[in-house]
Amino acid sequence: MTTQTSDLLAAAAPPTLDVVRGIADDQLDLPTPCRDYLVRDLLNHLFQVVVNFQALADKRQVEWADKPDHLGDGWRDRFDAETGRLVRAWSDPSTLEGVSPGMGMPQRVVGGMALLDLTVHGWDLAVATGQPYHPAPEVVTELHALVEQLGPTARKMGVFADPTPTPDKGHPLDHLLTKTGRTPTWPHP
Q: What burial letters (b/e) apply to 18-38, b meaning 16+ CB within 10 Å?
């Protein structure tokens, strides 16, 4: 059994997993488009997202304040396995029902947030480490509406920066990135 959320997560996972597998140990201290995050910090954040959103699918509380270091031995394989668990966690239709007790938002939106982090942070890590990144078009299309919905609150909370100028002939991913405050030509304006 699958849901639209699990299908989209399954489509979003491979490009991000390719990037994560391609990060060399000597790239962990490189800067990223996320302010104040080096590659290692962003990997740890994304790892925490992938794990915590499994629990959120089951409508359990999660702890965001804990900042464990997930980058020990075998971290790339563990990230791959946890991402597979994330996809499976959102495959039961009951995961999309109701409001998340931990997030106070509709479960469908919470699942979309996992999709957004997996996709946008996949791009962040790719450009930080000089790798290509080609997300599934259906994922990018779905995320445009979610970013429009979440944008004002996300900017107030400091999760998104103010939108940046959108390239005239940019790829749909470029337009999505600008809505989250990113510059698609990072590190150059």
A: ebbeebeeebeebebbbeebb
In this structure, is residue 186 part of a structural domain? no
Half-sphere exposure of 186 (CA within 13 A, CB side): 22
Query: DSSP of 115-165, one letter per residue?
Result: HHHHHHHHHHHHHHTT------HHHHHHHHHHHHHHHHHHHHTTSSPPPPP
Residues 120, 176 contacting (CB under 8 angstroms) = yes
pTM of the model: 0.94
Give the residue numbers spanning the domain of 67.
4-179
Q: How many domains does the chain fold into?
A: 1
79 within domain boundaries = yes
Query: Please, are residues 80 and 17 in contact by the beta-carbon 8 Å criterion?
Result: yes
Residue 10 lies in a domain: yes
On whether the CB atoms of residues 135 and 122 are closer than 8 A, the answer is yes
Residues 66-109: pLDDT tens digits? 888 999 999 999 999 999 999 999 999 999 999 998 889 999 99
**The domain that contains 57 carries what CATH number?**
1.20.120.450
Residue 69 within a domain:
yes
Cβ atoms of 56 and 102 within 8 Å: the answer is yes
